[in-house]
Structure formats: structure tokens, C-alpha cells
Amino acid sequence: MNPPFATHADEEYSLPPVEALLAGTLALMTGCAQHSGPVCQRELMVGKVVSNLTELAQHPALSQPMRVLLGRLSSRWLLELGGAAAPTAGMVPLPEHRTLQ
Predict the structure, then answer these.
(1) What is the pLDDT of residue 4?
(2) Comparing 37 with 64, which gets the higher pLDDT?
(3) Cα torsion through 33, 37, 41, 47, rounded to 10
(4) Average pLDDT of the chain?
(5) 3-class secondary-structure state, position 93
(6) How far is CA 97 from CA 85, 93, 94, in A?
(7) Residue 42: phi, psi to the nearest 5?
(8) Which of 2, 17, 57, 70 has its CA 20 to 30 A from that of 88?
(9) What is the distance between the alpha carbons of residues 84 and 62, in angstroms, rounded to a whole number?
(10) CB burial readout 40-65, b (16+ within 10 A) else e
């Protein structure tokens, strides 16, 4: 008989590395949005989000449009840090892009 609740094994997944990094980044972003603890802890999480998004934005397994989107997200999350962090050498400004909606 199976238990009526999810077990830990139900939450384990085998993902390709780029998808695992994306899943972890989404979890961190959720944690940042829900965080109510000390500001320094949130800043560390935001810094990791920026780092992960920057790495994903340069990943060759992702399409160019996806890399552009991730680069823009990285830039926006970097603004969350305010003056606490300057862009790293690997981060370059994104070209202007307009989307029709």
C-alpha cells in the first residue's frame, strides 16, 4: 500500500546539467521573493541568482533567444543588489531589443 503523501523520492529528478542549473536558479528566485530574514542573506541569494543567470546566458546548449532573455534577467537581478555589486568582467550590456505585444 502506498502512502497518501509524497515521499522524498518523488522530488528527485535526473536532469541534464543546464536544466538542473535552471531549476536551481528558479528555486533561488522563489526563495528570494519569499525571504523575510536578514538582508545580508537575501543579498547572498540574489548574488547567486545573478551568477547562475549569467552562466546560463553563456551556455552553448541554449538557443540564442533564451541566452538573451537570461542575460536580461541577470542584469535586472543585478539591480536588486544596488550598489553592493558591480558587473563582473564577463557581463556586457545587452543590445536594445523591442518586443511587439
Answers:
(1) 56
(2) 64
(3) 10
(4) 79
(5) coil
(6) 25, 12, 8
(7) -65, -40
(8) 17
(9) 30
(10) eebbebbbbbbebbbebbeeeebeee
